[in-house]
Amino acid sequence: MPASQSMGPQGRVTEVDIVVMAAPCAKEQARAGGIDGLVSLVAGDMERVNSFILSRTGSDVTLIPEVASHLISSGGKRLRPMLTLAFAQLSGYEGDGGIRLAASVEFMHTATLLHDDVVDESDMRRGKLAARMLWGNEASVLVGDFLLGQAFKMMVEVGSLAALEVLANAAAVIAEGEVWQLSAAKDLSTTEEAYLGVVQAKTAALFAAAAEVGPIIAGLGERERKAARTYGDSLGIAFQLIDDALDYGGAAELLGKNVGDDFREGKITLPIVLALRNADADERAFWTRTLEQGEIVDGDLEKAIGILRSHNTLEATVQQARRYGDSAIAALDAFPDGAMKDALVDTVAFCIARAY
Amino acid sequence: MPASQSMGPQGRVTEVDIVVMAAPCAKEQARAGGIDGLVSLVAGDMERVNSFILSRTGSDVTLIPEVASHLISSGGKRLRPMLTLAFAQLSGYEGDGGIRLAASVEFMHTATLLHDDVVDESDMRRGKLAARMLWGNEASVLVGDFLLGQAFKMMVEVGSLAALEVLANAAAVIAEGEVWQLSAAKDLSTTEEAYLGVVQAKTAALFAAAAEVGPIIAGLGERERKAARTYGDSLGIAFQLIDDALDYGGAAELLGKNVGDDFREGKITLPIVLALRNADADERAFWTRTLEQGEIVDGDLEKAIGILRSHNTLEATVQQARRYGDSAIAALDAFPDGAMKDALVDTVAFCIARAY
């Protein structure tokens, strides 16, 4: 259990330390490179993706580039388009299609963020005011739609019906996952299985599609497609589970996240699902009042964190993420050894190490 | 000018009569069939489109079919998918692709309606409570995204990259038009040209795409594609201009519309643009207070209608719609004579006759 913890004046967690909860596994210790390997291997392509993104957010309607740039230039890691470029390279692809598909993937992701902020009524995104706070919900909804339309236009330009199928399917699955999450919000009977289903749909589906289109445009077969999909899917789930743990502390502030957003929105994430399983009557009453009924008073977030820690569920969530990370790494067996494969292994470790 | 007009207790227009403002042109008088011809010629295909639509709104996430059915079964005319089926038939197409494309077009339209209601904060849609009033803005945004994703999946299944290109382009243009409209809201300096640009994007682009995919899947060339696009584009503009006029009276209640929505939202539609052109100082002050500053008091809607009538701008808007209707009819020259072509001529008259 953590040794020290200090609360800010508004009861905000200002320093938390999931860091000591779970020692990094051997694989993670062996890889110090983090995401740098991936970044440097796709750097040339990413530059082209970035110019392409800029050129496709242009519009005579000035509100569009304003809103889009706010989010696109706000320092996201561009993990999803990097996956497309990485798996295209790993599959021996040498054409131009990967650039457009990577840009499409980033547009789909940005559209989702814009719509999510409206749905969650979030004030902040990546440490900046959310677009909806600056331009209103209307602009966030419509610019999201514009980016989605542009994404499909770019995919069509690549001319691969198989890639289009994978990405169109992801678009539908992501939205389905978001609606599912909305329906499950505040529902304390959500099971671990149901929760992982939501995560797979709303987060992992785009990671999986981003990776799978690499072997597709390279003309590889089902074995490599499936391996890429599994890598993306598992990495996406691991990524989201770490996010869930971060919402109750950890390095959240460094990452520009608000601690406690999920709690205030009544989201039943894995740390909560696991804590509910062993909750005594007092704890159940606490979760019912805060998450189900939305009656949150000063000190409740700290109490929630205390309960999660007493049941070790933040640690268990990180451990679960680690297991998905291991599946992601195992899936890479279908591809040839080399610098790119090493970089993709490091990327898994990087995603999990965000918790520290 | 109209002879009689009565106001409801809340100052709501309960009986208005744009009907006497402009006598139907000879072409409209000659065609008594309205939309019935089109409906009966595509009836068999539309039945398949409807089952297809139902099958594709299914989801384990029960909120999705609930929200989607609310809108899809709420008695829209299905004009856009009928255009796809009609132009596919008119182009001699005999395959199954038209069914899926027509369903895609209806999904795109439904997604737009769901998002529009959130953006406009509308309470009503087609005479029923808007989905957002029943399930919240969140569900409207996300179910709209789901339908858009499903639309692209269905398009991909048809396997025509050219049709995909046209529809993906329409998706981006529609959203761009909506953002444009948002930026131009409350802006009294909006020109007629700028306004028609918005209409072309937000409304006519989908009509144009819906029609154009017909000759595309039939394998016809640029001449027929362009003709179908022009028909859809012109019909769409005419349709929207009639809607704009209806917002200030006419047969609005019969059509399940609220009179005065555009006025209350500060939308600068064509009747307003034309009235501003010849506004005296008092009138300009009135429009500035109501549309630009959003300060609307009892009796303002009736005063607005009075001003529009004194400048004949509702009549001028209907006349403008009629001119677009004539271009739509002229574009049909590229296609062979027959029952379908007659039905498409009648459809133009029907769209304009909604004003009466």
TrEMBL record, chains A, B:
Enzyme class, broadest EC rank: transferase
Domain of life: Bacteria
EC number in record: 2.5.1.90
Keyword list, A-Z: Magnesium, Metal-binding, Transferase
Gene Ontology biological process terms, A to Z: isoprenoid biosynthetic process
Cited InterPro entries: Isoprenoid_synthase_dom_sf, Polyprenyl_synt, Polyprenyl_synt_CS
Cofactor: Mg(2+)
Single GO MF annotation: all-trans-octaprenyl-diphosphate synthase activity
Pfam family, one: polyprenyl_synt
Family: Belongs to the FPP/GGPP synthase family.
Name of protein: Octaprenyl-diphosphate synthase
